[in-house]
């Protein structure tokens, strides 16, 4: 399928790639125009990352052409970015190969030398690329991505933090075309929603691989699918792709396999989702407060129905009694109590660092609480999928990895699957089952790890970030498995779509041992939270307006009690800072104009350049102090 357009940013023509006798794709063609936001969908091992690596020049290809428009700025976030470990976070941001960083380096080189040739051109480009406050902007994006220690060494960061530093570098470079490989991995929900909004708002052209289906639905304007070594393009978001894919398969008259049926179920699920609502009344929020009682009643009824199907799990699951845990000043839980009931499907959400994984490890007995206990029922057999559970011998065959655990799995209702049938169920065809693990892609290894957890036939599944690096088809298979799972489930995930499909209520970790039990899925929680914040903001606004109108002494005193007054010296400092910041901003503007004028002598250029660096640092420092005082 060809996609030819006038003056595209990128054009791929008849591209073919194979590894030995494994053909990934054959003569695929597509183009990316300005403003396109394209999601790339394919099963693990079909060549998604390979395609991005080919386009970025990291991998060769067999035949075809990859043609960029002249002078286009392109940046690529790969799955596992790396920086020199001895660099600080800020130094790493100035070590990347983007146009602005090169320009700043060139400018500093000219200023340090006696030869000022080409300075006028450099200054004009500095203005054009807004390079003077590059450092401040990179700090802002890093802060949004929860990287706040700019002097910390890269070698001290986790893999997820390094990926966030790399993501910040891609965004700050403002390239015309951005390629992102699983950008939402290692981001908490708040960061995912920030990135979603950032990419939707900015006029960047995107080509990205992600399994986050809400992200695909809300950001992408086009979907490309690699299926059976061919490429298909759909001019719409994820919902549109599901509909048109279904139509394509119907018109082709293709045999409806299990995988195609799964995607039809996915389409039905998407169609059932409520569209974004407009304004909501307070009665909608009030309904959430009565939801818990209803949810508990529903759970009791469903227990009777599910228990009758014969999945053996005792009445006692687990009870957390007065559990407290902290690391230094960081509190995870404080006197936490919870009674987990049969067939409960709980999701755990919260920002990174709030203690979700620690909570799970306490439940599993891997970490001891400081005080309190977890009492586990005698019939409980945990199956644990951890973030760092990949630990295979690469020279073992895929089938042997699973048969070393169990040769047959009992699916209930008298049904049994052999290890080979179970692997086939999770999209490992016979030829792949007899391959060595070393030949699997990263996503396929994750899928195999999932099989090793499920083949043990646990009655209580604990899944910590199971969706990272899994393709959408595998997620559908896992979601179908969990829907029919006759046991208990706890899932930690930042995948909002996955959580909406598989859990019936949430534990929300807010940090500092504040844990909220919410009786609904993630989308319901998000709606509840936004509406609650809106109502609270309106109440505060109304309260302030009321106080302003009445203007009584008593109300004035109350206001003072709620907020510590600025001291006389602080008030003077606050007023002075406002003037100083304004003066510095004006001076920065004047110097920038002079630097661009081309009329300054060499000495004046050096002095002005040094001064503008000082001004930017002073503005930063004084603004921080102004913010501190404004919050008192």
Please give the structural blueprint:
Elements: E1 10-19, E2 22-32, E3 37-41, H1 48-55, E4 63-68, E5 74-77, H2 89-93, H3 99-112, H4 119-128, H5 134-144, H6 159-172, E6 177-181, H7 189-201, E7 205-209, H8 213-219, E8 222-227, E9 230-234, H9 238-252, H10 258-272, H11 282-289, H12 291-307, E10 318-327, E11 330-340, E12 345-350, H13 356-363, E13 371-376, E14 382-385, H14 398-403, E15 408-412, E16 415-418, H15 419-425, H16 430-433, H17 442-454, E17 460-464, H18 472-483, E18 488-492, H19 496-502, E19 505-511, E20 514-518, H20 522-550, H21 553-562, H22 568-597, H23 602-630
CATH architecture descriptor text of the largest domain: 3-Layer(aba) Sandwich
User: How many structural domains are formed by the residues?
Assistant: 5
**Shape summary:** globular
The count of β-strands is: 20
Helix content: 40-55%
The gyration radius over C-alpha positions equals: 28 Å
Q: Provide a count of the helices.
A: 23
**Ends: how far apart?**
62 Å
CATH superfamily of the largest domain: P-loop containing nucleotide triphosphate hydrolases
Structural description of this entry:
The chain contains 23 helices and 20 strands. The chain is of the alpha/beta class and 632 residues long. The protein has five domains: 1-72 and 176-276, P-loop containing nucleotide triphosphate hydrolases (Rossmann fold); 84-157, no CATH class; 288-381 and 459-529, 3-Layer(aba) Sandwich (Rossmann fold); 395-457, no CATH class; 568-630. The strands form five sheets. The protein has a six-stranded mixed β-sheet, sandwiched between helices. A six-stranded mixed β-sheet has the order 14-17-18-12-19-20, with helices on both faces. Helix 10 crosses helix 18 (472-483), helix 11 (282-289) packs across helix 20 (522-550) and helix 22 packs antiparallel against helix 23. Residues 277-281 and 291-311 have low confidence and may be disordered.
């Amino acid at each position: 399928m060809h996609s030819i357009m006038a003056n595209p940013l990128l054009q791929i023509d008849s591209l073919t790639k194979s590894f030995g006798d494994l053909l990934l794709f054959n003569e695929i063609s597509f183009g990316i125009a300005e403003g396109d936001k394209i999601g790339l969908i394919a099963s693990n091992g079909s060549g998604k990352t390979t395609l991005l690596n080919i386009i970025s020049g990291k991998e060769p290809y067999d035949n075809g052409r990859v043609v960029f428009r002249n002078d286009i700025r392109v940046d690529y976030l790969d799955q596992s970015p790396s920086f020199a470990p001895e660099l600080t976070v800020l130094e790493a941001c100035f070590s990347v190969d983007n146009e602005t960083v090169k320009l700043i380096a060139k400018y500093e080189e000219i200023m340090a030398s006696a030869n000022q040739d080409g300075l006028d051109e450099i200054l004009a480009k500095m203005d054009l690329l807004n390079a003077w406050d590059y450092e401040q902007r990179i700090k802002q994006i890093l802060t949004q991505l929860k990287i706040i220690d700019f002097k910390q060494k890269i070698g001290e960061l986790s893999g997820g933090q390094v990926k966030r530093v790399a993501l910040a570098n891609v965004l700050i470079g403002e390239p015309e075309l951005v390629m992102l490989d699983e950008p939402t991995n290692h981001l908490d929900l708040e960061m995912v929603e920030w990135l979603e909004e950032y990419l939707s708002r900015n006029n960047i052209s995107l080509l990205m691989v992600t399994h986050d289906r809400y992200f695909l639905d809300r950001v992408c304007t086009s979907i490309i699918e690699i299926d059976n070594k061919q490429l298909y393009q759909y001019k719409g978001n994820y919902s549109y792709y599901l509909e048109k894919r279904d139509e394509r398969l119907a018109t082709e008259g293709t045999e409806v396999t299990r995988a195609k049926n799964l995607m039809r179920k996915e389409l039905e699920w998407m169609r059932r989702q409520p569209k974004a609502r407009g304004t909501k009344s307070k009665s909608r929020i009030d309904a959430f407060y009565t939801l818990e009682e209803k949810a508990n009643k529903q759970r009791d009824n469903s227990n009777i129905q599910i228990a009758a199907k014969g999945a053996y799990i005792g009445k006692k699951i687990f009870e957390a009694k007065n559990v407290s845990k902290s690391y230094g000043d960081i509190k995870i839980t404080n006197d936490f109590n919870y009674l987990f009931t049969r067939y409960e499907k709980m999701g755990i959400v919260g920002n990174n660092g709030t203690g979700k994984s620690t909570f799970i490890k306490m439940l599993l007995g891997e970490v001891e609480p400081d005080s309190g206990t977890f009492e586990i029922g005698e019939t409980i057999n945990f199956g644990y999928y951890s973030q760092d559970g990949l630990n295979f011998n690469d020279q073992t065959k895929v089938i042997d990895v699973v048969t070393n655990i169990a040769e047959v799995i009992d699916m209930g209702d008298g049904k049994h699957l052999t290890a080979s049938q179970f692997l086939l169920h999770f999209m490992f065809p016979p030829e792949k089952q007899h391959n060595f693990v070393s030949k699997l892609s990263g996503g396929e290894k994750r899928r195999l790890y999932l099989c090793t957890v499920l083949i043990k036939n646990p009655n209580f599944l604990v899944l910590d970030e199971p969706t990272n690096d899994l393709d959408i088809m595998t997620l559908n298979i896992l979601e179908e498995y969990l829907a029919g799972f006759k046991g208990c489930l706890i899932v930690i995930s930042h995948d909002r779509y996955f959580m909406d499909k598989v859990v019936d209520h949430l534990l929300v970790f807010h940090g500092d041992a504040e844990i909220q039990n919410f009786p609904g899925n993630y989308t319901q929680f998000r709606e509840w939270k936004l509406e609650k914040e809106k109502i609270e903001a309106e109440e505060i606004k109304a309260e302030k307006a009321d106080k302003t109108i009445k203007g009584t002494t008593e109300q004035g005193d109350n206001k003072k009690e709620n907020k510590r007054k600025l001291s006389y010296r602080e008030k003077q400092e606050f007023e002075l800072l406002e003037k100083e910041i304004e003066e510095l901003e004006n001076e920065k503007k004047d110097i920038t104009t002079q630097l661009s004028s081309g009329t300054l002598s060499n000495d004046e250029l050096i002095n002005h350049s040094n001064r503008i660096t000082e001004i930017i640092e002073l503005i930063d420092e004084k603004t921080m102090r102004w913010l501190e005082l404004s919050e008192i």
